[in-house]
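Late entry, evening session. Most of the bench is empty. Finally got around to the prediction I had been postponing all week. Sequence below, unchanged from the version circulated by S.P.
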Amino acid sequence: MSQDHVDVQQAALDEHHEDPGDLPEMRARFEHNGSPRYLLYTIKRFGFDRDHGFHLDVELVSDALEDGIETVEELLQEGHADLIDIDYISIARERAGGADIVAFHPYGRTVGGLVAPEDSDIDGLEDLSGKRIGVVRRLDKNWILTRAACREFHDFDPDETATPVEAGSKVELTRMIREGDVDAGFQFWQIIPEITETGPYENVLPVSELVQRLSKTDNKLPIAPFLTSGEYLDEQTETVRAFTDAYRDAVDKLVEDDEIWEEISEELMSYDDPEVMRAVRDGWRDMVVRDWDEDSIDGMYRLFDHLKAVAGADALGVEEIPEGTFEVDP
């Protein structure tokens, strides 16, 4: 994705950035190629933030890594953002390392899939050994879940029997897949349709299936929550609550209204292909989690414990989920 297109997306959001006036502000910083931008655009487009008494300031940023930390994480931890989303294993890892961050609402089952050429001999987990497998980073959730599933169901660890190749960003991973630098790559769900609908590639292994197999539950687990700093949550509790209300309004709109997706396709997507747009729309609707409760959190703990037992704390980068990581009812 070119910088010009990133600028176009930001301009589309800025059209709905009215003067906040005296409203409390929440600074949302999200990756320019991440699926939350569809939700954030919808909140701004229909004024759901103002409806609930706050101003959501949205800025799209790079998805690059710096010393193993994503750009959005760094912005939050350095006090330049109030709202981001990352997977809950990363939240636990950063919180265990001393970061003042709290997950306060679910986003969704933001896992991806293994994209391979259509003529590839990779059909599933058992075919990974001996292959060069692209990953954004070796600690990302797609690779950890895959390692756990391989060890649980096939008695091998692809971190040892395959060659994981870190791309450092989603954009670079797509390039590596298309140019054959890797045999296959674990790309994030929202980018997969752009690859599979426009070229000779297929999603040979949806990671969401591994989540369900490993967690042994039919409940759709919110792998990625929204998070903020503990300080912001303490000082702006009502604003955090207002965001969750605006979020639910936007989810309802995106689930029920097909026309808004046509607008999103024009404003935020880097391709003009109705089939890609519909694939992204349907994938988003399947991925998103509107709300959570204590049962959801229990399921997330069970999945974490299972991943730790199978892949080990070293693979997760954290021994346990620290107390206070989740705030179900802020």
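Two things to note before I forget:
Residues 112-215 form a domain with the D-Maltodextrin-Binding Protein; domain 2 fold (CATH 3.40.190.10).
The first strand starts at residue 25 and ends at 31.
Will write this up properly tomorrow.
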